[in-house]
Amino acid sequence: MTNRTSLTLYAATLAFALLGAGGVKDARAASDVASLLAAADRYRSGAGNLQVETEVKVLNRDGSTDKERRYTVFAQVQRKSLVLMRSPAEQGQKVLMLGDDFWLMMPGSQRALRITASQKLLGDASTGDIATLSWADDYTGTLVGEEKCGVQACLHLSLQAASKGVSYQRIELWIGKARSEPIAADLYVHSDKLAKQARFVFDNADAPTTVTEMVLQDRLSNHKETRVRYVSRQAKAVPEAWLNPMFLARNPALE
Questions:
Q1: Does residue 177 belong to any structural domain of this protein?
Q2: Do 145 and 138 meet the contact criterion of CB atoms below 8 Å apart?
Q3: I want to staple 202 with a disulfide (CB 3.0 to 4.6 A). Which of 25, 194, 208, 222 is the partner?
């Protein structure tokens, strides 16, 4: 049995026990939700240190492409990430995430600029959307109950930010009841306004193993669609020096 399968079965068992017990207010609720989130996270990030080649595309209302960018994301353990911007319009720019802290490095500058997780990269994809692939590390919450997602049975989780360096203060998340795969999410900013709605596309609709795309719908302003596609993933631990903003600002060429 694979790690993902065993974790998913464990999460499903916990969910069954909670729902069967008549609620989610018992003393185990927090740890049970954390287990469900960990199971859902594995569809987006897997485990350990990763290099994720990412494509972000903004679509107009008629479905035509407005803008497109490419990023290399080094998602590391302990809430650390490094984003290298690959498109000609952004070539040489980098974003570093260390826990709740974010920095932007611009080519030709030896200073790292402080930014926030909610700062836009392209379309409705924020810095946090690209650099962060884990809910379990950043949120706590409750299991609201079982609901239908189309024809599929889902579990509805209501999540609250557990750290300040996240893009969204609250997330309403729906995951598959049988396999704990993420289905959809409503994403709320600090003013508790619904900023975006997300849905997740998988490698195999009947037997999903990996999220291949996150589709974001803007609910505040332009109502455009932003697609974040995970082109490839591979295990990769970067040198510790790459996770230092001063080193990055002074060493623009890493590869």
A1: yes
A2: no
A3: 208
Residue given tokens 């709320």 in the structure block: 188
Q: What is the pLDDT of residues 223-247, one digit of tens each?
A: 789 999 999 999 999 999 999 999 9
Residue 246 within a domain: no
175-206 pLDDT, tens digit each = 999 999 999 999 999 889 999 999 999 999 88
The three-class DSSP label of residue 58 is strand
Residue 1 DSSP label: -
Banded pLDDT at 26 (limits 50, 70, 90): very low
Strand bridging mode 125-126 / 120-122: antiparallel
Letter for the amino acid at 135? W
Q: Crossing angle, helix 3-20 and helix 29-45, to 10 degrees? A: 150
Phi first, then psi, for residue 224 (nearest 5°) are -80, 170
**CATH number of the domain that residue 198 is part of:** 2.50.20.10
Span 78-89, pLDDT tens digits: 889 999 999 998
Structural domain including 21 reads 3-47+137-231
